[in-house]
Amino acid sequence: MSAVEAVALRRPLVGSVRAAYLACVILFGWAIMQFYAPGTGFTSLISIGDAINQRQMTKLRNVPHFVYEDSAGYDGAYYVQLALYPTLQNPRLATAIDNLPYRARRILFCWVAWAAGLDQPAWIVQAFALLNVVSWFGLAWVLLRWFPATSWGNFFRWFSMMFSHGVCMSVRDSLVDGPALLLLALALAAWEEGRKWRASVLLGLAGLGRETSLLVSTMFAPGDRNNRAGWRLCVRAVVAAALPLLVWVIYLRWRLGPANETGLNNFTLPLAGLAEKWGAVANAMMEHPGRAVSRATLAVTLALTVQFLFFVLRWRPREIWWRVGATFAVLLMFISTPVWEGFPGAAARVLLPMTLAFNVLVPRGARWFAVLLAGNLTVLAAFNEFSPPREFYTVEAPGELISALKIERTGGWYGAEGSGGLRWRWSSGQSELRIHNHAGGPLLITCAGHATSALDARRLRISVGPATAARANDAMVWSGELGALSAKFQFGVTVPLGETILSFTTDKPAHPVDADPRKMAFMISNLTLVAKPAAGP
């Protein structure tokens, strides 16, 4: 076969591979758009919990943002406040942020959000929420250097990085890991191109974003341990990379005092944390083998273990990428419960450089595919990160009515949950929806949804009445027996101007289910309320 014929045969393959890359980029963009909500924008990506609402800084409190119920939130809720106060001069930061000196070390991306938001609080919050999204697109482009769109093998490695649990968790919770990985990838690319000082500067910036990024300084080491000139260059490059963080830490010590080094709790004896995690995974699989979260945790833990063993058993200290991966494999040995705990936990994002080095180094060919596949199983857990918060009910009404109709939850509802197309809330036994009608006249609202019992058979009663009346006088609109299978209900109510209460009650007390500490009686899922003007006077 001639070279021309080979190229002609290869064109359809390359075209289909490029289409797959593009489809993944479009899919990611579509998934992120699902987190947008009118009024609060993309702030559901920051994971701000109601537990810290009272401690929020004024600028954040005055910016409309999504708040997760019954939740302490996640680290992004602290970093976004640093972005709103980038000079750290407001004394209330010390009470709003759990460990200000520790959090403030990772200041770089807070500065970036502040600059992108032009010192406007509402813009800063949105910029912070989207910083990981922009970094994802940047990383997708940079990784083409090592995984070009020329084969399905490259696509698999690129896809496994871009949709790894660590990257997706960073995007979902507006963390520092994703943007730091982008800077690390740029630094490694610069070093490979012979641009030594650019690599050092980029690594220094990554260290200001996440201090463990400086572990990638092992790339500066010469492959030949007898290369004295290489070691001198290595020392200079490491010092230059570490200097920005060192200066910033000295400034923080001067302004804020010593940090409460909670980060030291993240380390333990070699492999003790990993062993403890495998014990938790085994217990979860034995007790709840059918739960998606148990399987996802197993996949993440297995993948990280495979990556660790790849670097331990395949000794290549002369290779830059091996040194990078091996450094984080050593880190894996010492990380403890705070990093591993949870389902799946934070380890996959903390060890992202190891995952990248793994995908770069695993040899090509069918005999290594099983290793490559096993080491990238974190992808199975990543898609759980793309479930945007949604209420268990939706309101449908003509454009002129939708803004005049407000639904408020009261009573014993637990936090909203969802999976795929299913959205639900559990109730502790008596819960209400308070309907506010400001449409200028009565509305006819058709309600439909599904109800499920927690464990035992029970009767659910749905009634309606004015907010000012006793609930015992409400009119029943639906009643039915509930079991393990969901029961569908549908009814229509006429809602006058003002407030009307839709009440959900049951005839048996609530109780815990499995290991869940909540006392649950019934679940209402995918409730729809369709409103239109009521006929007649």
The largest pleated sheet is described as:
10 strands, mixed
Shape: globular
Distance between the termini: 84 Å
Q: Oligomerization state of this entry?
A: single chain
Which stretches are poorly predicted, pLDDT < 50 over at least 5 residues? none
Average pLDDT reading:
90
- Treating each run of at least 4 consecutive H or I residues as one helix, how many helices? 21
Q: Percent of residues in helical segments?
A: 40-55%
Radius of gyration: 27 Å
By helix and strand content, what is the structural category? alpha+beta
Q: What is the domain tally?
A: 2
Kindly describe this structure.
The mean pLDDT is 90. Strand 10 (511-513) and strand 11 (516-520) form a beta hairpin. The chain has 21 helices and 12 strands. The chain is of the alpha+beta class and 537 residues long. The strands form 2 sheets. Strands 1, 2, 3, 4, 5, 6, 7, 8, 9 and 12 form a 10-stranded mixed beta sheet that branches. The protein has a two-stranded antiparallel sheet with strand order 10-11. Helix 3 (76-84) crosses helix 6, helix 6 crosses helix 7 and helix 11 runs parallel beside helix 12 (228-256). It folds into 2 domains: 3-386, no CATH class; 393-533, Jelly Rolls (Sandwich), CATH 2.60.120.
Q: What would you say about this model in short?
A:
The chain is 46% helix and 18% strand. The protein is an alpha+beta fold.
Name its key features.
single chain; 537 residues; alpha+beta; Jelly Rolls; 2 domains; ten-stranded mixed beta sheet; 21 helices
